[in-house]
Each structure stands twice: as C-alpha cells, then as structure tokens.
Amino acid sequence: MKDLRCGDCLEVLKTLPSESVDCCMTSPPYWALRDYGVVGQLGLEPTFQEYITKLCDIFDEVKRVLKKEGTCWVNLGDTYNSKPIGRQVDPLRSKGQYEHKKPFLEDISEKCLLQIPSRFAIEMCNRGWILRNEIIWHKPNCMPSSVKDRFTVDFEKVFFFVKSKKYYFETQYEPHESKPHKYNGKKIQIAAGNSRAESDGSEFYNPQGRNKRAVWRITTKPYKEAHFATFPPELVETPIKAGCPQFVCKKCGKAREKIYKEKTGMKYTEEGNPQGINRSVMKWNDSHPTKNPRFWSETTVVGHTDCGCNAGFEGGTVLDPFAGSGTTGAVAKKLGRGFIGIELNPEYLKLAEKRISKEETLFT
Q1: What count of other Cβ atoms lies within 10 Å of the Cβ of residue 19?
Q2: Neighbours of 1 (CB within 10 A)
Q3: How many CB atoms neighbour CB 93 within 10 A?
C-alpha cells in the first residue's frame, strides 16, 4: 500500500482512522535551521518552545492513528543559540520568497546548545508517550566544523517511543565483537557481546549475534534530486524491521509474530587445542575430561502466531508525516511494508512519488 498526501500535516493526520498504522518513522524539520519556502512550514517559529508545542501536537495525532502495539521513531537534531547570519535556503523553495532570519533568544546565553531533542522527548513523555530508547546516530563522515572552542558534533538522536507497555518489537542483532581470553596461559579469541560470564567461568553465546546496541554508525548519503536534509536508508531500515510487522492480518489487523525456540547446551574446549570445540557434547557431563565448559544458547524460528481469521496477511503500514523526498516510503516498499506519507511541499511530493515508484538500490 502506498498513499502519498500533500497538505498540512496535522490536518491530513486528522483524516486517518484511529489505530490504523503499525509504525511511524520520521524526521521533522529542525527548528530555525532551514527555510523550505512553503507557507505553514514547521521550524520557523520565533521560539523553540512554540516549535516543540506544535510538533508534539502533531504527534498527539500520530498517537491516535497508531495501533496500541505500534512504535514511533523520531530523528531530531539540535542547534545553538547564535545571532542570526542568515538561514540555509532549500534549493526547491519558491523563487522570490522572503528569507527568514534565525531567531536569537535573549533569555538564553549566546553559543548555548538549546537541547531541543531532549526538550521534545520530555514533552512527549509528559503527553503520555513511553520513551524506550534514545539512539545515537553516529555520522563517521559528518560535516567538518571550523569552530575552535568546542568539539565537532558528529551525531544526532533517534527517539524510540511507544504508546503502550506491550508493543510489537522484533529483536535485531549485530555481529559479536571479539576479545582476548586466556586459556592455559594462551590468548585466544572468544565471542563477546551477548555472552555473559557465569560464576563458574562459563559464558552464554548467541550465534545470531549480540543484541543491537543504541549507537548506530551510519554514513550520511544525500539524495541527489532532493533537498539536503535527507536521512540515509540504513537509518530507516532498522526501525522498520524492528517496529513494523512483516505480516498483518487483512481482517483483524493483528501482527503475525515469530515463534522462537531456544536451544542450549555446553561447549568444551579440547585439551591441547584451545580453539577447538567439541559440538557433539550438547549437555552438562560431569565426567567429561576437559576443563572450562562453556554454555551456549541458540534461538531459531520454528513458526508464526496465527490469529485464526484465515483472511491472509500483508505487510504492516509505516507512516511518515514529514515524507520529504520519500526515503521512508522507499525503504518500506523494499521491505514489503505499506506506506502513508504526508508532505506539505508539492515539489517534494513529486520527488517522493518518483523515488518510491522506481526500482533503485537503497543499500550499499
């Protein structure tokens, strides 16, 4: 399902049915950063307090259209309180339109970081959202900075909200790190990460990888036909995989979740071969001649839940109320999910339509 709508975000959201969306993944316009040349745009408010109020009003409606089991992911950047020297102008803005100047807040010290993402997250929690994670998007290829009195900022935040204590979430994994480990005085490599030391020196190990951490190292990748505020597809991929079900009942709307089976056992390090593993030994054996037994744990998918409607399944629906050039929609399509996008600027809507409809390589 693909549904792109042009218009004021709040007004369009009010036309959507309650509890009809599985996941929201978006990046709103940042405050006082850029003039998109569209009447009614978010981000040009005279104070960040007014900006946060308007933004959270929008997410009140997002909360209404989100299913009880739904998830909401918001990428938001910060800014410093500085005297205006002009605003970055979006290349697609209307010609001849007045360029607004960045506000300077007299009641806050000059050069102070305004902490807008944190203020936004606090207000969202005040309005009933549950904040599950504060994710750091680390940009290894961040823009260089010429400032001499602070460090270069190479990250942004992604907030992971839910509306209910019980929600859909599929665990995502990342490769284990390795760390030196001594065995009979020799250094060998064992998996770290999900492993946890037990009192007897054994360790658990998940061959799928370790639970994905909250610092995501993702390079920025601008879309050549869009404005320069696009976020990379990789930043969208994980939230959709984790927070939007791949299979949703066409009748009742309930997500079909994976059923896991955990298999555990013991691994023994062979004498004389510190890195060798005897995988035939599946359980504790007190008579086993070798030392340093290690627990292992493996989780496999053995089936899926079934609501019993027998109506068939389809991909869950992802909402982006600030669709921009359509990155979220393109990734949702690639992952087999439905998509609803809202965008105020009709020029961006054309880009989003083009990007989502054509086949292109999103991940490298």
Answers
A1: 16
A2: 13
A3: 18
Residues facing residue 300 across a β-bridge: 261
Task: Choose among 241, 244, 317, 320: nearest CA to 75.
Answer: 320
User: H helices within the chain, ranges in order?
Assistant: 9-13, 48-65, 116-126, 233-243, 327-334, 346-357
Go through the chain and tell me how many residues it has: 364
Kindly give the pairing relationship between strand 338-343 and strand 130-138.
unpaired
Cα–Cα distance list, 179 to 49, 87, 187, 268, 328 (Å): 47, 48, 10, 18, 37
The domains found in the chain, sorted by start residue, are 2-172+213-255+313-357 (3.40.50.150), 178-209+259-302 (no CATH)
Q: What is the pTM of this model?
A: 0.82
- Cα 40 to chain center, whole Å? 27
Read out DSSP for 44-61? --SSHHHHHHHHHHHHHH
Cα(337)–Cα(329) distance, integer angstroms: 9
- The first and second tokens of residue 299, run together, are 């989780």
Question: pLDDT by residue (tens digit) across 264-315?
Answer: 665 554 444 444 444 444 343 444 444 455 555 667 788 888 999 999 999 9
Q: Among 116, 105, 97, 102, which Cα is nearest to 36's? A: 97
